Amino acid sequence: MAPFLSQYVWTWLAYTIAGLVHIALIINLVAVGALIFIWLERKISGRIQDRLGPTRVGGKFGWLQTLADGIKLLTKEDLMPAGADGFLFKIAPYVSFCAAIAAYIAIPFAGGDLPWIAQRLNTGVFFVLAVLGLEVFGVILAGYSSASKWSLFGAMREAAQVVSYEVPLGMCVVVPVLIAGSLDMVVIGDRQAGWFTNWLIFHDPFTFITFWVYFTCATASVNRAPFDLAEAESELVAGFHTEYSGLRWSFFFMAEYGSMFSVSLLAAILFLGGWHGPIPITDFLGLSSENGMVAGYVGQLIGATNVILKGTIGVCVMMWVRWTLPRLRIDQVMTTCLKYCTPIAAVMFLGATLWQLKMPDRNFFGVLPVNLSVYEISEGQPPIQFPEIPQDKPTTDQVAKTSDNDIPRKAL
Amino acid sequence: MEGIYWPSFFFWLFSGITCSFAVAVLVSTNIVRMAFYLVLSLAGAAGLMFLAGADFVGAMQLLIYVGGTLVLLIFGVMLTSQERFVEMKTMAGDWVKGFLAGGALLFVLIYAAFSIPVWRGMERTAAEAVPVTHTVTPIAMGLLGARTDAPDRPGYLLPFEIVSVHLLVVLIGAAYLARAKRTRTIESN
What we know:
Number of strands of chain A: 2
Low-confidence stretches of chain B: none
Radius of gyration of chain B: 23 Å
Number of strands of chain B: 0
CATH topology of the largest domain in chain B: Four Helix Bundle (Hemerythrin (Met), subunit A)
Low-confidence stretches of chain A: 374-412
Number of domains of chain A: 2
Shape of chain A: globular
Mean pLDDT of chain B: 80
CATH superfamily of the largest domain in chain B: NADH-ubiquinone/plastoquinone oxidoreductase chain 6, subunit NuoJ
Helix content of chain A: 55-70%
Number of helices of chain B: 7
Largest sheet of chain A: 2 strands, antiparallel
Order of helices and strands of chain A: HHHHHHHHHHHHHHEEHH
Order of helices and strands of chain B: HHHHHHH
Strand order of the largest sheet of chain A: 1-2
Distance between the termini of chain B: 88 Å
Radius of gyration of chain A: 23 Å
Oligomer: heterodimer
Largest interface: A-B, 48 and 41 residues
CATH architecture of the largest domain in chain B: Up-down Bundle
Strand content of chain A: under 5%
Shape of chain B: extended
Distance between the termini of chain A: 37 Å
Structural class of chain B: mainly alpha
CATH class of the largest domain in chain B: Mainly Alpha
């Protein structure tokens, strides 16, 4: 976008405008997403508990309930305990919120030659994981600075939980990276082009199990029930946000819903085909950038809808789990992580590696051959020039011939 | 505005963030605030790495150093539950010793940086002509044993394997040491 704009205005202005547009889109996605998800959560929890949920505000279904809540929160008094560390107390919600929205910088919403992504990073998955781990800082600072025992206990629980669950989460994420042969999320998404049989969740039995382990760990790492020990209301009042009120409290909630959505988007892109629907409608209709700009745009729009829909379904499953399962004890949380999730993830990683070694070009549990055209989607960058390598190394010789995209696949 | 070289501007911005929060770590006396300033300082360093095009190192910086500060923060919170650690005062002698050690290191680094001619800054036109390269694939290939920058030299497969096996040993050892000790219980029927 910035190179396009810089034809018309000064370069510095073009880059500023492009950056601001991206920021505005991301913040709106998180904020409007939170608005919808809070309403959805109320409705779903109501239905699960045989209630109606909100019904009045905004006519049918109470769809304006969250907006009314937001106005109520805006008018609430911003309280701070007398013994609190003022600076940290005030800054903690913003730390959480910033970490939650910063992850969206590297998440693509449509792929192809001109992906819809704020900043395409060569290390996209890695960056998202790293940034998502930073959200816990806000929680710990909030817990510490509130000068309240409930808050401190909640924060310490959250810290222990997040630090442990990052290990299996990272191991699960490595599996799709291994199969796609890239850390770039656009490449991983486009690896799954075509029918749903190409989705990485159906790549082999190991990825199928890895997906469920990933989803469990993601639920735990964004601190949702049944892993919501940091805010266990039956024991800790409200955990780390006990002392917060008004808008600062709602920032914590926006951060929570933002990170829920981002781990769901990550699951959708890594395992569930990303912007490629179960049926490749855009391919049938020829909606790609080769058939003109408008067709390409419509195709990208359908792709973005696909991603957002899959992410929303992921969030809904998290809500369903939350209102179905009871909360775990802290020792059960640790047991789940260290005795179940981590070993399962490690074995699945090993299994996926061996599977990739034995059947490198098969999809859908090894039944279907990979359509090799998926590897030809350009990475949007000049391929790295591999130097001439002496002939006595067979593997590296192969590497020198292939494009940037499928090196690890061949090298394995 | 056209005269400003924007990469330099962002370099000064990020280095300013890094350095000012590093100073804030020194000046602050509350241990949790110190850890928080350290997070911001290290995040600024990650920004510098992204700016330099080393996005893998930048993401590493975020994951390892910024994320690792988390543990520091947790210990800070744990320590401040005891009264005598809430405020940490630095003695005057410690300031002198600190400045001596830090100043010596700074002198060595600056001397090294300015004595190597390749590390001198290049002209703006030359800097703009440098192509953007991505670093992940060369790093991965280097760790697998094939250097893309210098193909006639050996890769880093052996060090990589040694480090990974070492880390695995450390992880298993930590889990073994941290597990609950089983005591033999006498069953009474």
